[in-house]
Each structure stands twice: as C-alpha cells, then as structure tokens.
Fold each of these.
Amino acid sequence: MLRLLFYFCEVNIHQKYILRSIELGKKGLGSTAPNPMVGCVIVHNEKIIGEGYTSPYGGPHAEVNAINSVRDKSLLQEATLYVTLEPCSHYGKTPPCADLILAHKIPEVVIGIKDPHDKVAGKGIEKLEASGCKVTIGVLENECREHLKRFLTYQQQKRPYIILKWAETADGFIAPDPNMRKTNPEPFWITNPYSKQLVHKWRSQEQAILVGTNTMLEDNPKLNTREWAGKSPIRVVLDKDLKIGSHFHVMDRSVKTLVITQIEEKSKYFDGINYEMIDFSKPIAAQICAILYRHSITSVIVEGGARTLQTFMDAGLWDEARIFKAQKFFAKGIAAPRILGKLRSEESILSDTLYIYTHD
C-alpha cells in the first residue's frame, strides 16, 4: 500500500512539472516552426532550478535553454529534467539535446511523448537509457499531443495542421451579394473590431494563410498581421489562371508569398513571388497539402472563400474550424459553409460568438 501511494505521488509530481513544461512551450507559438514548440523544466529536490522553451527557428532547443538557465551546474547531476517531447539525438541546425543531457550527467529524464520525426523516433530515449539515465515516457501524453498538434500532424500525416476560419452573418452568409461590390468595392467586415484583432493574433501564431482567387479579386486583402504584434504568415494564394495582377496587396513582396497555379509560362510570373503548379482538373486539397509540406509549412489558416473552404471540408483535410457568428444581416449573398465536426467551445466576443470545432 505504501509503495502504491509513493507511485501516485511520483506520478502527480511528474504531471505538475510536465504541465509547467507545456506552459513554457506555448511561449514559442508562432516562432519555432517548423520545429516544435517544446518546453523544459529542471527540478532539484522538488525545486525548479532551470526552465526553457524552444528558441525561434534555428536557435537552441528547449533543453539547451533550460540547462543554460541553471546557475549552479553541479546540481544537474542530482536533478530531473522534464520535457514535453523526446530530446533529439541527431545533428540539425543545433547539436543533439540528448548528448547535452548526458554531458551534464543528468540522471533522470521525464518525457511527455516520443518524437515521431524519423531522425529521432525513440533514438533519443535509447541513447539516454544506454548511458544509464532513468527515463519515464508518456506523462500527460494527451495534453502534450494537443500542445504539439501542429508538429505531430506535419510529421505523421505529411501535411500541415489545417485551421478553417470564416465569419458569417446572423442569416448565414459569408459574403454579400456580388452586386453590392459595384457600389462598395471595399471588404465587408462582418465581425466587430475585437474579433478582427483576435484573427490577427491567430495569423501571428500560424505559419501560413491561404485564400482562393475570388477572395483576392473581390477583397484584395493584405493577409498580414497588423492588429497584433507578431510576424506575418506566409501568404498562399490559389490563382489557377494568374488573374491576380501586380497591383494586388499580396504581390507587394513584403511577406513571402506562394501562388498555386496551372500556368506553366514563367514569363507571366512576378519576380520575388514563389510559384507552384497543380492540376486543377483533379481534387486540389491534397495537392495543396503536398506543396505546403514540401515548403516545410506545419500549419495553415484557410480564410476563404466559401468554395475554397468547402474544398478542404469535402476532402476531409481539416483539423480545426474557427467560426464567428455576427449580428449583421445581408439578406442575400454567398452562403457560409456548413461544418460537420465536434463543437469544442463557444465564446462571446461582445456582439460576436466564436465557435471552435474539431474534425474528430
């Protein structure tokens, strides 16, 4: 009975520090991709002596930052390192984290989940255990998987984590009747300014944003981050026949832009813009995902229009849908897509309601 009680106390302690590691890892959202946003905590005698999370892409990993934050390095030989994802065992842009852990003779490592990357995939754990390190795996595994969902989707499904996003009126329209554009060519804002700011926060957190041709031609959006501090996502534009001219905002080269087209004639391409070709006579969602995967894009927000959103839903290629329902009425226009997914949350943002669905 005493041994069982000790076991549960140990598990609860492990969960406490893995939760803190997840909290730390979130600080890397929007900056670490295509690397995962990992968090790490180092504990000595039930006291945290070091913390770290993954630096912006190309910089040190979470374990390196946590170890470097420890003032008295001699304590590491009696400490436990907690990390949300298996320490890497290969050379990439930085040396292997498993080697650093062993170099400092850290005797115990607690890991949230194994790394599915083919260059790691248990090799980090094997290296640690072979050197006598005690390794515990699978603490708060579900929570770590949710936290690392972008990286895991990219590694396991060979595509980015796909977020569908749109706003619709109270009477179910995603855009006004096309005739209204003749008198008012400016974008029609359905949601309130606070919802708009939240959308820009999301843009700073994801690697890419994708829209279809009609959305570009009708709204001429900038697709950058303006209402929130942070980086702008890679702009991905579907332009089958290259109708989008140089005067459109997305062609200003201020942000990396990828145009997906069927036109092979490179004389029609603009300098400073990336082009990829697909076959528009075949289902396009999977082809787009393959291109984004090749460009190391681990997450993308699909912002519209209705046809583009429906294309991803019909193909079953989406993970999350974020839908704003506003109080405006259009009476007629372009109908919003109908989502089939699991409602995860519902939140009021002044006059708007935000619904989050997952594709379970």
Note: The two ends are 40 Å apart (CA to CA).
Amino acid sequence: MKLDIIGDIHGCFDEFQELTLQLGYDWGKGYPIHPDTRKLAYVGDLTDRGPQSLKVTEIVCKLVKESLAYYVPGNHCNKLYRFFLGNKVQLTHGLETTASEYDSLDEKSKHTIRKNYMKLYENASLYEVLDDGKLVIAHAGIRQDYIGQYSAKVKTFVLYGDITGEKNPDGSPVRRDWAKQYRGDAIIVYGHTPVKEVRIVNNTYNIDTGAVFGNKLTALKYPEMEFVSVSSSMPFVEEKFRKF
C-alpha cells in the first residue's frame, strides 16, 4: 500500500494542487492521478477559512468515488454536513466562508455540490485502519484502546481531540496531549491542531502544518515516512499554532 496522506486543507485548493504535482500526480483528467498507482488520503477538514473550499470537496468526492483516495471527516466536515442537512449551525470558525461560496452558486450547482458532499460524508469511515492494521488515519487522532470502536465518545475524540470540556481564554477547547500516552504499534496519522512542523510523538504524526494560517500544506508519504510540503499563500497567523 502506497499512500500520500495530506493534512488539513481548509479550502487552500492552490496549495493542494501544487502539493499533488510535487508528489508526481497528473491532473490531465481534471483531478490528481498518480502513474505508479499511489493513492491520496485525507485527514479531514477539507473546507472552511480558505478561498476555494467547494473546489476541494469536488475533487475529493471524485477521487473517493473512483476509489483513488481515502477520506476521513474532521470536525469542520461534520459541521458542513449538518449545514447541508439544514440544521441550525453557527456560521463561525470558517464555515461562513464555505457558506458564502455556496450561496453564490446557481441552484443546479448547489444541488450537485450538496448531494456529492453529503454522499462523501455519509459513506466515510470515522477513521481508517489500513495496511493490515499498521496505519490508522483519524482527524484529531485516536487512543489505542479506541481503535475498533465507534461509540459517541470515540467519535468526539476523533473529531475534536482529547477535550476536557474546559475553554482556553480565546474560546478554544482545552485538549489533553493524548499522543504522549500513546503506546500502540500502529502508526497514527492525524491533523486538527496546527503545528509549524510535523509533530512526531510515540508513533503518532500530526501533519496539520497550518496551510490556512499561512504556514504550509504537508503530505506524509507512506510507507516511506517522508514529508513533502508546499508553502501557503495565506497570511501567517502566529497565534493559531499550538506550542507543546
């Protein structure tokens, strides 16, 4: 199994395209295909905050439909799904940018985008266990004892991390550093928490290098365990990066 696992894109389509080109993918058919049968994988949070969220979802929907990629949802994916369901969700924390893109479309385009995205989300695994259990892709990570479980408690952990229920002064949730306690054999690849450089702790790899906050978009090549990154075109926002 040969994968290129991409961190949180958050609507940064240009960076996504540039990264796949660097990884050797061909866009001749309008979406990235690798000549050596490598596949893409996504840690979730395709949308929100960046300039071209819906274009990112279109490409990922196509790739997953053609069995050319793996996708697991993030918390922003979950919120967009609830928005498309018609639930009352707050247009904050980036969803307002995706909703604005959506509102500017004609009705036919809206229907297509909504239908394809909802199908992508509904068919997605909460997390992916791949390569005979050697690799797990989960948006905010996963505890060893949660692998194989799909309860509401596990879903909260996978989407939001190991949250305590408390809030930081900026309103963001307080999260425990679950990776420090991880002792499993499986490689865990995740995102969710922006870091300036890939964070490797106890066989866990946080590859969300904050593309939408002006740093870079990163891919992890598996099984080579090599990193490929492209610089972001977005303004740099220092306070969005977690310090450990």
Note: Residues 105 and 111 are 10 Å apart (CA to CA).
Amino acid sequence: MHYPLSTPLGRMGVETQIEGPDRCVASIPASGLLNPFTGAPTLAPVAMLIDHVGGLVNHHRRGPDEWTVSSELAVEFAPNAVELVGAAPKLPVVAAGRPFGPTGAAPLALCELTHAGQLLATATVRSFHITAPGHLVEWPTDSADAALPTTLTERMAVEVAESGGTTKVLRQLSDPVINNSLGIVHGGMSAAALELVASAAVNEGQEASPMRTGSLRINFLRQFRGGDESRYEGKAVRVGRSTAVADASAVGDDGKVALLARLTAYR
C-alpha cells in the first residue's frame, strides 16, 4: 500500500506490503537523511516504521468498539546498522511484525528490521486499547504538484531551536500532514525526533569519533500536538569513553511532558 504525501506515512515514504493480525510487513527509505544538529547520517526515521508495523499488528487485534494508541516503543540496533544502510542506499529498510504473547489490554508486537537481507534491528511496540473515537480526522488531499520534501526537518515539520552544548531542542511545528487520525502528532514522528535530539546531545564534541545509537526506549504518556511552544528536548546524562546515555522528552504547548525517552549510544 502506497500512502499519499498528505499523510504522515506518505511524508516519510512508508509503504505497506502485508497487513493483518498475525503478520505485518512494511518498508521505509532510510538513506541520505541527516541529523539536523550533527549533519551525520541518521536512522531516526526507522522509528516511524517500527511504530507503524508494531502498531498495525496490535491494532488488528482490537475489539469491535476499540481503538489502539502506542504506549511503549523500544528498539535495539545492530552495531553496524548505519554502514548496512549506507552500503545499499537505494534499498529500503523492511520491518516484519508479529504478535508477542496474548492480546490482553496492552498488546505487544515484536518487529525484526532488515536491509538488503541483513538484520538491522529488533524492536517492540506495546499499545493500549481505548474506546473507539466517534470521529477520525481526515488527512489533507495531495495537490497535483506535491513532492516528497528532501530534508528530514521538512518531512517532520521540525526546526532546530537550540543546538549549543549537551542540550538539544527541536521545535515541533503545527502541521496537519504529520498528525495521525486522532489529530495528534504521529507517534512514529515523535519517536524519530526524540532519537535526533538525544543522539545529538551525546555527540556534542564527538565529531572525530561519533557515538552510535544502540538502543532507544520511549514511553508515550499523553497526547502531543505541534504548536508555538511544542518541542523535543534531549540532554546528555553521561558521555564516557565508549558509551553514552541521554534522556529526551516531548513537551507540549501546555508545558507538560507527553513522551519520555532514554537513548544509549556506543562508540
């Protein structure tokens, strides 16, 4: 399935090949996209793919009057993940998801990500059942001359607000194209942004020998919307010789934290 550019999935180039309660498979182009803080290649958009595939698996197991929202996302990258993608830039990253354990009130999906047939990462997405909304937001209609934005910041509707020191801030602009059907910022978009600010925070001053994201774990606490004060903040907790840890959060216009993340990186 190909998604219009007026949707968050289309904006990130996601395509779905298989969709069902037992198995979901989708892909995303991941080469050529740069972290706006460091200018280095980033795998942050893969978080969008993980949220989509894992969320689909869980969504297909909902009851007739239920909807699902992401509550947790976790990913572990292979040490050479960036090199794998760079070696075959024209090929997308592919994610295959399946149920992990019984459905229950908070279903869990397990995802395996590959690139050119090689294992890139493993991930999990836990969802939470809510009452089916009475109305879903309609996405904007694509214009005839619509084109996929070239930079990651344009695709995600974000801009750098603070880049100095070990604290990094990205503003989340208000843009209906990046919202999900509930009218809030798509969880995969937010997950990708949290990786960007957290990895940039641990890589301050590390240009000669950069740290690479090993794991990312996210908790979705409440709805998050783009706005004048909406932002992602990443701060280094500790940067050592070979490992580093950073915390990140998504803060809404109301000053409340909507998402929390912890990133671990390795040299």
Note: Helices lie at 8-11, 46-59, 81-87, 152-156, 187-202.
Amino acid sequence: MSNLCVTGAGTMGRGIAYVAALGGYNVRLHDVSTDNLQNAEKLIRSTMNQSADKGFIDRHKADRALERVTYTTNLEDAVNNTKIVIEAVFELMELKIDVFKQLDRLCDPSTILATNTSTMSPTEIAASTSRPDKCIAMHFFNPVHKMKLIEIVRGLETSDDTVQKVKAVAEKLGKETVEVNEFPGFVTSRMNCLIGNEAMTMLMEGVASARDIDKAMKLGLNHPMGPLELADLVGLDTRLRNMEYLNKTLGEKYRPCPLLIKYVKAGRLGRKSGAGFYDYNDDK
C-alpha cells in the first residue's frame, strides 16, 4: 500500500493527507472544489513548514512529504492504483453513500474503502457497495496531526483481513487504535456529545460562563480542552449533525441543546466562522 487516496479536502481530509504523507504514502487528495483543494494545499504546506521550523519534524522529511501529495478534482485519477481510499466528506449519510457508490465503481475490487465518520454506520454505508467485507470506519480526531487515536469500527461484514490491514495503515501513520463494534457514536463521540451538550445546557441556564465551565473541566477533571472550546474547534454545525443523528438513533438524552441550534442558525459555527461559544476574530 504505497498509494493512498483521501476524498474530501476539508479539515479532516487535509489532516489525514498530512499524516499519510509524513508516514511515507503517495497521497492523492481529492475534492470536487478547486478552491477547497487550493486551501488544503496552502494549509498543509503551512503546517508542515511550521512543524519543521519548530523542530518537530526533520526539514528534509517535511519537504519529501510535501512532494508526495497531489491534488485533484478527478476522482478516477485519484483512486487509480490505490489500495485504500479514506472518505472524509461531511457527516451526511446520503452524501457518504453517494461517494461510496462512486468509489465502488471506480476502484479495483481489492481496494479497501474507509469512512472517516464520528457517528455513522459503516454497515449502512458498506451496503451501497459490492464489497462490504472491504468497508470499514476509521474515525480520526481533530487536529489529526496531533491526536494519537483512530477508532477502527467494523461493519457487519467487515473481514478480519480488512481490519488488520487498516490497523497496519494506522500504525504507519503513527497512530494508536481501538477496535469498536459498530453502534451509533462508537465510544468517543457518544461520551463527547453528552458532555458537550450538558456544558451547552449549563451555559444556557446561566450556571457559569463558557470560560468557567471549560476551566472547571480542565482543572477539575483534567480534560486537555474544555467541552465548549472543543465544540468550537470541531465546528458547531458538525456537532449539531452528530447530535441529531445520535438523537435519532439512541434517543432523547442526545436531543441537541437549544443554544447549539440557535448558534448554528446564527452562523456562529466556531473557529471556522470566527465565532462560536468564543470570539476568534481577534485571532486573525
């Protein structure tokens, strides 16, 4: 597996492409939007150069990694002679299924198709293909280049061989893995969404300020980030989609906080929009 394709050049896709290139893969990063690809290339280069300047990675290794990434809007070219494709599009089931149908048609029958999803069913996504045994979920975490974990989630028909090959890919990317039996939200998203939703509810009720809620979780429970900071980093629109899916599949305790819904309607999506539970406009 020397070639690896990532489809979807947003926050997660470009992060996966970054670590894959550092891990020695020839990476094809695909997106339907030229603007998304140009932005991804700019940010990958910036992050790689900053890491080299700070001594986190060797400059020669960084330069070689950048040379291994190609950017394309042509999905057929992106998946050619590639043994694993990682899908990193929005958390919308209809979109993921559509992408997997395209990948199934274009890829060699031996190619593994992995979805980077934090909540959704790899079984349902795999059912749209002719290779459910070669479909799996690889849940990466944001920011990908800093977070060590990948949740490996089996679908109903995922083969042991697929699991072992994907674990080997994760190891080459410098990540550790946990193997999860499919259930909505897996391990981390179920816990994280509950904690974040309760933090939003406390903020809405006036229990404490956003900063004090986050500070309490960091200093009192030793969380590296507060739940509201983390929601802003992930994106409040993404968090809302996750909550809506978990509410639908797991029940009332995952009903999204009304404050989250209000912020998304107002366009306060977190860091990417300049404001969420915190204001980031001064950071620009």
Note: The chain has a mean pLDDT of 94.
